[in-house]
Amino acid sequence: RSNLPDNLKLLFRAVAMTTPDRRMITQVMLFSQGIVTAESLAGKITLLFTLCEEQLSMQSHYDFGLRALKSVLMGAGELKRAALSAITDDEFDLAEIEKEVLIKATCNSILPKLVAQDIALFTSLLSGVFPNASLPDITEPSIVEAINDICMEDYLECKPEFVTKMLQLKQVLDWQLYQNI
Questions:
Q1: 3-state secondary structure string, the chain?
Q2: How far apart are CA 51 and CA 70, in angstroms?
Q3: Residues in the chain, pLDDT under 50
Q4: What pLDDT does 178 receive?
Q5: What number of other Cβ atoms are within 10 A of residue 73's Cβ?
Q6: Rounded Cα distance, 4 and 6, in Å
Q7: Whole-number pLDDT of residue 180
Q8: CB contact at 8 A, 148 and 162
Q9: Which of 167, 47, 49 is nearest to 108 (CA)?
Q10: What angle do CA 81, 141, 167 make, to 5 degrees?
């Protein structure tokens, strides 16, 4: 940054900027997605993003800002609508469903980007913010079988970590395709 010359300073007004209130923005976005427990969930998800930003390793591809938060919140809304359309039982706990879809949307967005040493820390942060929460299991047997077959054909060692990253990549690509439709 450099200072402007005095003759140019006269042409501009002084402005003051503050950091945005993430919690309020998150709460409004959750309400707009139809999540009725937005007050409690907004504080938790913003705390999780803040803790991730502060405690995870510094990687150039990590983004825990408002843009990433918005992506998670939009994903939670889509997952909630899908979960509610799949429910056939008349009695269900809406707050628990909303918490689960928010956790799943967060994991779908953040986990594929994490390096191996940060996954354990993210898991502990997630369980600290959302007690009794665990990472959602990604299981697609047909894709796992196809990955194993391709690895065997190419004489590659097919480790579980590799298969998990491939499933996460598919999940991210599916979500990007779904958002662009």
A1: CCCCCHHHHCCCCCCCCCCCCHHHHHHHHHHHCCCCCHHHHHHHHHHHHHHHHHHCCCCCCCCCCHHHHHHHHHHHHHHHHHHHHHCCCCCCCHHHHHHHHHHHHHHHHHHHHCCHHHHHHHHHHHHHHCCCCCCCCCCCHHHHHHHHHHHHHCCCCCCHHHHHHHHHHHHHHHHHHHHHC
A2: 17
A3: none
A4: 61
A5: 26
A6: 6
A7: 59
A8: no
A9: 167
A10: 65
Paired tokens of 41: 């969930």
Whether 122 and 110 have beta carbons less than 8 Å apart is answered as yes
**What is the spatial distance between Cα 93 and Cα 95, in angstroms, rounded to a whole number?**
6
Q: What is the largest CA-CA distance in the chain?
A: 71
Q: What is the mean pLDDT of the chain?
A: 88
**pLDDT at position 172, please?**
79
111: Cα separation from own chain's centroid: 8
Residue in the structure block whose two tokens are 């391709």: 150
Give the C-alpha distances (Å, rounded to integers) separating 83 from 70, 92, 163.
20, 11, 26
Q: What pTM was computed for the model?
A: 0.79
pLDDT of residue 94: 87
